[in-house]
Amino acid sequence: MNESVKKGILPRERVIMSLSHDEVDRVPLDFWAVQETWEKLIKYFGTNDKEKILQRLHIDVRQFQPKYIGKPILKNDDGTYFDAMGVHRRIIKNDYCEYEEYASSPLGYVENINDFASYDRWPDIDNYDFIGLSDIIGDAHKTYYIKMETGGIFELAWALRGYERFMMDMVLNPEIAHYILERITDFWCEFVERSMKNAGSKIDMVYTYDDIGTQNSLLMSKEMWKEFLEPCHKRLNKVIHKYKKTVMYHSCGAIYDIIHELKKLPIDVLNPLQPRAKGMDFNRIKNNYGKELSFHGGIDIQDTLPNGKEEDVREEVRNAIDILGKDGGYILTSAHYIQGDTPVENIVAMYDEAVNFKKNKKGYRKIMGKQKIIIDTDCGSDDAMAIAMALNDPNYEILFFSTVAGNVDVDQATYNTLMTIEYAGTYEPPVYRGCDTALIRNMVFAHETHGMDGMGDIGLKVKNSKPTSGHAVNKIIEALDKHDPGEIEIITLGTLTNIALAIRLAPDTMRKVKRITIMGTAGLGVGNVTPVAEFNIWQDAEAAKIVNDFGVPIMYVGWDACIDEAMLNEEEINRIRNSGELGKFVIDCNTCLMEMNKKRFGEYCLDMADPSAIAAALNHECIKECEKYYCEVDTSFGPSYGGVLVDQYRFSEKEPNAYVCSKLKVDVYKDYIFKTLGA
């Protein structure tokens, strides 16, 4: 018996809850594979019982179809045959499996629309036993989520007519295209009607499909889709929804540009989210459509499953659940039939990883082999974007956030951090309040840049979150003490007061840090608060000096890394803002900075200092220029106070003590921003 059934959690309930965007114990699972893959699984598990194999893989969904009872499907002398839909087919073999391909187009040479009716192999509804469907399902619906499949409309149309000929018909002979599509739609609508009348109480979902995407683009314009295909699927979906069943729609390929139209059909679940197709970015899809749609699929069959190592598969599963499983609305499975060249070990790894994936407060999250990080922040508006990016990078586990005075006072920084975590909507690391003043000098907050509240003064509010008790400095020390050397990285987005105090209180423990990435210094350029100083260092130069001189690995991400071409222009700003609730939040809270830059540069733009540091720390591919230099922090209280001397020409002949990242690969950096923010 399925393990979840033993525990009293029915697979059917798990799927229904997930599709309702409720929290469940784990992500629900489905399975589809070619016959050759089934044969490998039968050999691997030592049983011919497919149901036992599905239970071993913890599959929550079962599929049943009305039985074909029409004329026997016989092969011709040349090995070809006409299938139940009237399509002329032949079997193609490769090293791994057999596939049905099209042998000819039986309606390809019909010229007169009146002659189409005489074709004697149109799909016939009487070729199926709908009365027996309930018996085929049996009692499976009491435990499992049941789906039934209809065939394609567009796909069957061009299979009968020929692909090129049918595409030409949609331009030159639209009446022919409409006739074929409507006749096929009539068949599938009646197919659903009869299935529901005989077994509707046992069926939860109807799976419909039409491939309308290639690897890189749509097969046709949206206008052509709306004229020819939209009416057909609207009509079919209306029948399905009449019986209050879930509609899952399948299309392979690069279909992002038409998801909005598919949503309006309406559909309920989108399959298969082909990961390697152009534009099918999970973050963007989930952020823009995750509240209205659920998703099914997501695990790559083009490369990861057949060619990857087990850990590659497990990582892809974790990533898919992290993103698509956030707040429910996801059934995990392969992005198409699992092919015969896929190692069984990778299939088992895919499902075992999904079952063992633990959930946090929101969605699902299991941290396995991920770099652990602590983010220290004086959370202003650019910190907010950086924090949201980090929370949406599935390759890292944020142990907690420590807050410090800098852009704003520490209480406001704490409030802003909690707010950002809520908007990010992924998982909720603890937030610890830290130092409320610099070590020596009085602080000057950055109200002109970030607003009085640090978030653009646009009235943003925390909903429910509160900081966790305990001082940030103590928590930093405790975390490093509990972990082995090199397990934790620290990323600082504000002043370095917390880190300096931790070093002074527990130097031996702090030496266990793997690296400290600091958003600070003017890099190899000019400052942003004085001609030589960058704000984070200048705000508490004494603390910065303690950290700089401590002797652990340091990478400064300089102010110069986020300016010039690395600045977000107005088009890029709007792309992020229009991507969803999170995108709107991270842009709107930077209103003060945008207005300030409008006065400085004559256009709306954003120099995102903290996001550049997060990008350099978490995605090294973003780094273009990063060299190790001898660095020294000026605490002399003269005009160069808070500046960091970067001895790029080795004048001092002192041993280099810090890496300085002064330039990013702009395209990679911006793509990372867009990806992590779902834009």
Descriptive notes:
This protein is an alpha/beta fold and 679 residues long. It has two domains: 3-73 and 111-151 and 197-218 and 243-356, Alpha-Beta Barrel (TIM Barrel); 371-446 and 459-563 and 607-677, Inosine-uridine Nucleoside N-ribohydrolase, Chain A. The protein contains 28 helices and 22 strands. A hairpin with a 5-residue loop joins β3 and β4. Mean pLDDT is 93; it is low at 1-6 and 359-368.
Brief digest:
This is Uroporphyrinogen decarboxylase (URO-D) domain-containing protein. With 679 residues, this protein is an alpha/beta fold.
CATH superfamily of the largest domain: Ribonucleoside hydrolase-like
Shape label: elongated
Instruction: Assign the CATH architecture of the largest domain.
Output: Alpha-Beta Complex
| CATH hierarchy class name of the largest domain | Alpha Beta
- Percentage of residues in helical conformation: 25-40%
Strand order of the biggest β-sheet: 15-14-13-16-17-18-22-19
> Number of DSSP helices?
28
The total domain count is: 2
Low-confidence stretches: 1-6, 359-368
* Strand percentage: 15-25%
> What's the overall average pLDDT, rounded?
93
> What profile does the largest beta sheet have?
8 strands, mixed
For the CA atoms, what is the radius of gyration? Answer: 29 Å
Classify the fold: give the CATH topology of the largest domain: Inosine-uridine Nucleoside N-ribohydrolase, Chain A
Count of DSSP E strands? Answer: 22
